[in-house]
Specification:
Layout: H1 15-22, E1 64-70, E2 86-90, E3 97-102, E4 107-108, E5 111-115, E6 118-122, E7 125-126, E8 137-138, E9 142-146, E10 151-155, E11 166-170, E12 173-177, E13 189-194, E14 199-205, E15 215-219, E16 222-226, E17 242-246, E18 251-252, E19 266-270, E20 273-277, E21 280-282, E22 290-292, E23 295-300, E24 305-311, E25 320-324, E26 327-331, E27 345-349, E28 354-356, E29 370-376
Antiparallel strand pairs: 1-2, 1-29, 2-3, 4-7, 5-6, 6-9, 7-8, 9-10, 11-12, 12-13, 13-14, 15-16, 16-17, 17-18, 19-20, 20-23, 21-22, 23-24, 25-26, 26-27, 27-28
């Protein structure tokens, strides 16, 4: 358990209040009691009184869905701003990759999600070229790119710094799951963000304890949290748990563990199907003991099992992953035991299980990047993040 009560960073809530949330039974998400997070009382995903799902108002508009790749790190090119500040869009083989914008700082192993026209970048680790020995400092910062106006905004930070964080969006709200704080403590907490109040609130703890590198996605009104890594698990730090929180019934739903434990995998819903991609696992008696995985698997909701779809050409973990229609895009990452980051992109048609070719590679190698799908309108290129002195916080 992370020593949250001793932390002096990212605190919007007293340690005493948070301890009440932490010690509630794992069968229910705790309710945040802080005044700044009273939205929890009417948000049915964590409202113990039940009722219909409350959806945050979102501006709807027409646009073309495109894949966006955000940030990342190239361990062999740390003197460059690529890929750590890059925001690129991919619009098919005819247009390839286009520089869309820039992040405020070099960021990797963060989480991204979209709500309507807005791209949210949550936490991660920041890299300072002036201190090359420190590859990453966990951050609690949250930034939002409004693709309709082309403007970035610095939002309220998360309650805790979170690198290797899982992020998902549901009904206009964001969830941040687990990760690692600035003191390298693994976290077991879940936070929820209300865009209308610009406020984060603790909503509970993960059954099974803290973890980094868990794969997260929303599927059929449920938050799935799969695998992860916790070095305190001495027998096998790579986790096989499939956690599922029902956002309508407000309960944790038991699920069968993975056949192969994994961390730093990708989890995406593709046309109503939950797809698990790649990751990294630890196999006893095998050299190397930590290996990357190539499996692409589909969750069978009826039988609570995972079906094999296909294998990637290159096993990988810490990749970016998103979908447009039935097509799944897997970008970059790393292949253990190679020390080099990957630059290629693999594309899978989930309906047929076929790998599609040809595919244009990323403009740079990257691991710890994050991908999502968002509908974009012109212009193709948006302004980079403004300087700190001109950043809007409203």
């Amino acid at each position: 358990m992370s020593p949250i009560g001793e932390m002096a960073v990212c605190t919007h809530q007293s340690p005493e209040t948070f301890q009440l949330v932490q010690t509630e039974p794992a069968g229910q998400l705790g309710r945040c009691e802080s005044a700044e997070a009273t939205f929890i009382a009417s948000f049915s995903a964590i409202n113990t009184t039940g009722g219909p799902v409350q959806k945050a108002p979102c501006k709807q508009y027409e646009g073309k869905p495109v894949m966006v790749a955000v940030g990342g790190i190239d361990l062999h090119s740390l003197d460059s701003q690529n890929p750590g500040r890059c925001v690129y869009s991919y619009r098919g083989e005819e247009q390839g990759w286009t520089s869309l914008s820039e992040l405020h700082t070099y960021t990797h192993h963060h989480g991204v999600a979209t709500i309507a026209s807005k791209l949210y970048v949550c936490g991660g680790a920041t890299y300072d070229p002036s201190n090359p020995n420190a590859l990453g400092n966990a951050t609690s910062e949250v930034h939002c790119l409004d693709t309709l106006t082309g403007t970035w905004k610095r939002l309220s930070p998360m309650q805790e710094c979170r690198a290797y964080v899982g992020v998902a969006a549901h009904n206009g709200y964001l969830y941040a799951v687990g990760g690692e704080d600035a003191q390298r403590w693994k976290l077991d907490t879940i936070e929820c963000y209300d865009p209308l109040m610009d406020s984060w609130c603790y909503v509970g703890s993960l059954p099974g304890g803290p973890r980094i590198g868990a794969a997260c996605a929303i599927h059929k009104e449920q938050l799935y949290i799969i695998g992860g890594y916790n070095s305190e698990n001495r027998s096998n730090p790579v986790m096989d748990e499939v956690l599922c929180f029902d956002l309508l019934k407000h309960t944790w739903v038991p699920k069968t563990p993975l056949m192969i434990p994994r961390c730093h995998a990708s989890l995406v819903e593709v046309q109503g199907q939950l797809i698990l991609v790649g990751g990294r696992t630890k196999l006893d008696g095998q050299q190397p003991p930590i290996i990357s995985l190539a499996q692409v698997e589909r969750y069978d909701d009826v039988n609570d099992a995972w079906d094999h779809v296909t294998d990637l050409k290159v096993p990988r973990h810490d990749a970016g992953c998103t979908a447009i229609g039935s097509v799944l895009y897997i970008v970059g990452g790393m292949k253990t035991p190679s020390p080099y980051c990957l630059q290629d992109m693999e594309v899978v048609d989930i309906e047929t299980g076929c790998l599609l070719e040809p595919v244009t590679s990323l403009p740079y190698p990257a691991t710890g990047l994050a991908c999502t799908t968002i509908s974009l309108q012109d212009p193709d290129t948006l302004p980079p993040y403004p300087t700190a002195t001109s950043t809007s916080t409203t």
